[in-house]
Please model this.
Amino acid sequence: METSTPFNQLLNDHSPSLKTFAFKFTRDSAVADDLFQDTMVKALRYVDQFKEGTNIKGWLFTIMRNTFINDYRKDVRKNALITQEEEISSVHLMKSSSINTAEGKFAMADIQRSLDKLPKCYYDPFIQYFEGYKYHEIAEDLGIPIGTVKTRIHMARQILKKQLKVYKK
Model:
């Protein structure tokens, strides 16, 4: 069946009920208009598959329902792959980020300069703690009380925090 004026008239006759049906699916008038338009385009594209005497309203509703379901499935797949959150968690960032080596080199150079500026009495306990040693092991190695080790590590953190505040997020 070719696209003809009688067929176009049938489409026009069923437009109001199709628009209502589209809105029931989507609950959004803009999305319903898109669904209606997609249905009409498909009806015109597949007019040769429409058989005379077939319930055109049922045929159009079937096209609309299938279009809605297919679009819904596409959206679900897309949303499973693409995160659309305002704040992306570190888990999502790990999946999608790339390493910026130039920025990392600058940051590491700044960290090293800040560490080099630390007084030796703060530097030694901080580095040992950073390397994984326990407070009592550091105290024993440096020959100072555990309380002093904790204080010096705390002071080193405060100094580094102040010097590296540009990296605070």
